[in-house]
Amino acid sequence: MKIEQLVSQIHQKKSFLCVGLDTDLEKIPQHLLQEEDPIFAFNKAIIEATHEYCVAYKPNIAFYEAYGIQGWKSLERTMDYLNTNHPEIFTIADAKRGDIGNTSTRYAKAFFETLNFDSVTIAPYMGRDSVEPFLDFEDKHVILLALTSNQGAFDFQTKKIGGEELYKEVLRTSKTYRNSERLMYVVGATKATYLEGIRQIVPESFLLVPGVGAQGGSLQEVCQYGMAQNVGLLVNSSRGILYASQGLNFAGAAADKAKAIQLEMAVELGKLHQGS
Ligand SMILES: O=c1ccn([C@@H]2O[C@H](COP(=O)(O)O)[C@@H](O)[C@H]2O)c(=O)[nH]1
């Protein structure tokens, strides 16, 4: 998908919500366990209930790999369903991959060609030749981990090397990569105040921002410090939407949660237009 199509969706739906499809058989409503493919049945119901309020879906690959071949089949069915029924919605494989070039190319083919995702999350630790193979795919995007939402982010990412924090070095160096216009970055909502400095380095890049809802990040703060002229934000919520209810009306409850976030996002987008 082209960035312009994503931006156009954001304005059309007045939303920059990404719904995380972290589907956990221990948390989905019990009655779905009788279905032939409970993970897909849950995802389909969530997608149908929430698609008008969001512009992206992000299956975290761990939740599918955990169930072996059956989990991988559920992921494939979910992607086929999205690409067939909602091709305008941006898809993110939250896989956090990255390896020597030869191997990265195989990962890229798996997510961009076989599963037909629009983007994949990549760890920057192995450097240029581990990331560039993912950047070779037209209209596909690499979402590089910059400053993650967890406490462990302070172990390495905020440490200074040569006078600058490592996450800033990741942002600056990655801008020199081949096809760097296909890069986006992960920045946790729990680190919202850092977004001001991040925007000085990557003013218009799209940022995937997990950590609102269950992890306690604030949507308002993310917008205050991180919104760009092209919006430039995809704010993710997974558990806060998926498991709003474990009863028969789980999808309705998820829709209510997604709509509540979308309405807050509409207010934030309104402020952007006032400022221009
Ligand atoms: O820094 C990061 C990077 C990725 N994640 C992932 O996002 C979702 C968040 O789920 P919630 O239930 O909304 O907390 C999940 O898939 C994480 O693995 C992140 O949280 N932080």
TrEMBL record:
It catalyses: orotidine 5'-phosphate + H(+) = UMP + CO2. The keyword Lyase applies. InterPro entries: Aldolase_TIM, OMPdecase_type-2, OMPdeCOase_dom, RibuloseP-bd_barrel. It comes from Flagellimonas olearia. This is Orotidine-5'-phosphate decarboxylase. Pathway: Pyrimidine metabolism; UMP biosynthesis via de novo pathway; UMP from orotate: step 2/2. Residues 16-254 form the Orotidine 5'-phosphate decarboxylase domain. GO terms for molecular function: orotidine-5'-phosphate decarboxylase activity. Pfam families: OMPdecase (PF00215). The keyword Lyase applies. CDD domains: OMP_decarboxylase_like. Keywords: Decarboxylase, Lyase, Pyrimidine biosynthesis.
